[in-house]
Structures are given as C-alpha cells and as structure tokens.
Amino acid sequence: MSVKETDKIDAIGVEESTNTLVLLVSDPFQWKIQEYEHLKAFQTKINNYVHFIESGQYRTKYPDRSFDSFRIEAVFKYRWSDAGESFFSAGKKQLAERGIDFSYKLKEVQQ
Length: 111
Known about the structure:
Blueprint: E1 11-15, E2 20-27, H1 35-54, E3 69-76, H2 82-97, E4 100-106
Parallel strand pairs: 2-3, 3-4
Antiparallel strand pairs: 1-2
C-alpha cells in the first residue's frame, strides 16, 4: 500500500514502551513529478487516518486496548520538496492540536 491508496491504512502497530498507536504512511514516489497531486493525495490520506483515530475505528483491531497517544509516521523513499516540507511542518502543528503526533523521515537504505 502507499500514499496513493488514500482509503487504506498502510500499516498499524503499537509502540509498547509508550503505549502509542502508530499508523504508517508509505510513500515510494518521487516529488518532482506531479507535486500538487502528490500533496493532495497525502492530505487525503492523513485526513482519513485522523478520522480512523478520532472515530475509534482502531478499536476494531484493538478492541480491549486503550492508548496513551497516537502517532502518524510517514516514511519516504525520496526526499520531499520544499512545498512538502511546508505542508508537513504545518500539518504537524495542526495534528498536535488534535492530540496526534506526526513524524516524517526518509527510508533508511540498507546495504
């Protein structure tokens, strides 16, 4: 799955040490091509993740568990654009206001 499949959760898991529900966004696409569409898809995906958290849909997978916090992590194969950086920075602040942490990073390449 990837950022372009906006109606799907790419991966979900629990960080046991902090009792945090973590939702992963996987982004294998380059930013130089169709940047606007890329950002639009990412925004839709994040909005769907927020709805998944705020509506309690995660309880389907974890029915007997409550979480101390929530985090959305985006992992990129390619470096994002300047517009992407602005978007993620603003999004991080907006998500924090809703009690959701947001992080983003380049995928580590193993050799």
